[in-house]
């Protein structure tokens, strides 16, 4: 006997579990199916984000930042500690405990919202009267029928051609988050968000880290002035980043990994490391979904094809998150999930892609929303720019971290904020003010006239807005 649901969500990452909860809040009878298991075989909902992405990476970034502060900066505060040491297995265990808290939290939220959770691999069987039949292959097999289906099956790390992940020497994000001891030498291929975050963790713990990047420009999606400032800070920290490289061979036959490549000048180089993290992007995951059984359209890159409202080519089948076009970000998946659940319930969900923030959680952090200076130039938009350095911010001085700046870009005529770009301490938190402002179509003058608590890092946001009109008060 099949079990009937109004909505079946496949995947319980940030796209899936949020879609399930929102649909349940709107009165739907909802099932959510997820295949992720702990080492003990128990359910681990939360997807990439919770298990091997956003949450564990931030846990390790925090631990390694504490370690670096204790080693390098406590002395400035008059604190002496003796020799500072790191117990890597304990750091990893703390990270694992945080992941588990999040897994358990999602299971609790399912109960609270009366979402029925199934642990196992979901696949399409066929279209049936009033919806679709879905098979769940778990400890036991179940057949479900759903009137509406939301696919949120996420993404997997992309391997270098011919160099599969063994998670011992050649690591994806999964292996990179559970290295048992700080390696002496670590190589990283890809200077994107994940590469820089992982590189920072292990560099802080004493590893010699070399990042090889194929593109000749550092962080091309980031405002050039901000990317330059970030690069300067990473160089100073000793994170070696080589741009414009071409990998020719990766040899894993020895004790470590030997990477042969040509550098930007075309010279042949060899990098020998103990471990190699490959972070060259992610591919949409439709493995095991049996999309062909119902004719669900997938493009040449393996992504489920959707329209602006996340509708697939099949009536009643939706897809959200990393498995569809757009930035692979947890909050993008969540916003699409809420919008889809609301559309299913007859409401008018909406996602504003123009105000999706992006963050790199290194030190300094990098955060931005809206268009950057190079994009505005390309588009021929007339704009005014204002910047304010953290060097001139009292709270940043008190924190002992004055790296970076806040930068505003506003329309030359209307003063509407077109983009806000930040590099510096805690800018992952500061960027939200800019997102709110842009959602409300604020002008830089609006932010410049709002009272910000003193002393706070957020005063730099106000000052950068003042700088648009060349009237900073503290610089
Ligand atoms: C190291 C790292 C750090 C990151 N840091 C950030 C960050 O700081 N901020 C940010 O916004 N984003 C970050 N991301 C990206 C973020 O993790 C993803 O954008 C997000 O997880 C996508 O959510 P999703 O729900 O689409 O997919 P996922 O989180 O990948 O979840 C998909 C789920 O579906 C399940 N599944 C797949 N197929 C089936 C099936 N057939 N049946 C049942 N279950 C199935 C999977 O097991 C998984 O649990 C990071 C990613 C990585 C790798």
From TrEMBL:
Keywords: Cytoplasm, FAD, Flavoprotein, NAD, Nucleotide-binding, Oxidoreductase, Redox-active center. Its main location: cytoplasm. This is Dihydrolipoyl dehydrogenase. It holds the Pfam family Pyr_redox_dim. The active site is a redox-active disulfide bond. GO terms for biological process: 2-oxoglutarate metabolic process. Residues 357-465 form the Pyridine nucleotide-disulphide oxidoreductase dimerisation domain. NAD(+) binds at residues 190-197, 213, 281. Binds 1 FAD per subunit. The active site is at residue 454. Its cofactor is FAD. The keyword Lyase does not apply. Belongs to the class-I pyridine nucleotide-disulfide oxidoreductase family.
């Amino acid at each position: 006997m099949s079990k009937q649901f109004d909505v079946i969500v496949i995947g319980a990452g940030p796209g899936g579990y949020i879609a399930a909860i929102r649909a349940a809040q709107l009165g739907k009878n909802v099932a959510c199916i997820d295949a992720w298991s702990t080492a003990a075989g128990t359910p681990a909902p939360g997807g990439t984000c919770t298990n091997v992405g956003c949450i564990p990476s931030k846990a390790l970034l925090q631990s390694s930042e504490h370690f670096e502060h204790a080693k390098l900066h406590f002395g400035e505060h008059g604190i002496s500690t003796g020799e500072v040491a790191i117990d890597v297995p304990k750091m990893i265990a703390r990270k694992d405990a945080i992941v588990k808290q999040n897994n358990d939290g999602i299971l609790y939220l399912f109960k609270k919202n009366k979402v029925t959770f199934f642990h196992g691999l979901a696949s399409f069987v066929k279209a049936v009267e009033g919806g679709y039949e879905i098979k769940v292959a778990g400890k036991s097999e179940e057949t479900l029928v759903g009137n509406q289906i939301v696919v949120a099956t996420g993404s997997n790390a992309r391997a270098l051609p011919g160099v599969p992940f063994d998670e011992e020497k050649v690591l994806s994000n999964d292996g990179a988050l559970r290295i048992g001891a700080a390696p002496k030498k670590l190589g990283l291929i890809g200077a994107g968000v994940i590469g820089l975050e992982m590189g920072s963790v292990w560099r802080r713990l004493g590893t010699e880290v070399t990042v090889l990047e194929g593109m000749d420009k550092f962080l091309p999606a980031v405002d050039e002035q901000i990317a330059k400032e970030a690069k300067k800070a990473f160089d100073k920290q000793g994170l070696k980043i080589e741009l414009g490289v071409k990998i020719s061979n990766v040899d894993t036959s020895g004790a470590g990994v030997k990477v042969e490549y040509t550098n930007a000048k075309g010279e042949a180089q060899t990098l020998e490391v103990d471990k190699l993290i490959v972070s060259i992007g992610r591919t949409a995951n439709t493995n095991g979904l049996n999309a062909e059984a119902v004719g669900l359209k997938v493009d040449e890159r393996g992504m489920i094809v959707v329209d602006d409202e996340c509708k697939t080519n099949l009536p009643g089948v939706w897809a959200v998150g990393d498995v569809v076009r757009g930035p692979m970000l947890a909050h993008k998946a969540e916003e699409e999930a809420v919008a889809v659940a609301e559309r299913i319930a007859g409401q008018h969900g909406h996602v504003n892609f123009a105000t999706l923030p992006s963050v790199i959680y290194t030190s300094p952090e990098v955060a931005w929303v809206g268009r950057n200076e190079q994009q505005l130039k390309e588009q021929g938009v007339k704009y005014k720019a204002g910047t304010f350095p953290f060097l001139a911010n009292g709270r940043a001085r008190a924190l002992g971290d004055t790296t970076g700046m806040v930068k505003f870009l506003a329309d030359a005529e209307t003063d509407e904020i077109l983009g806000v770009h930040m590099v510096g301490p805690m800018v992952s938190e500061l960027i939200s003010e800019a997102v709110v402002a842009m959602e409300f179509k604020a002008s830089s003058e609006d932010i410049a006239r709002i009272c910000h608590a003193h002393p706070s890092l957020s005063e730099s946001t106000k000052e950068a807005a003042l700088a648009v009109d060349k009237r900073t008060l503290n610089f």
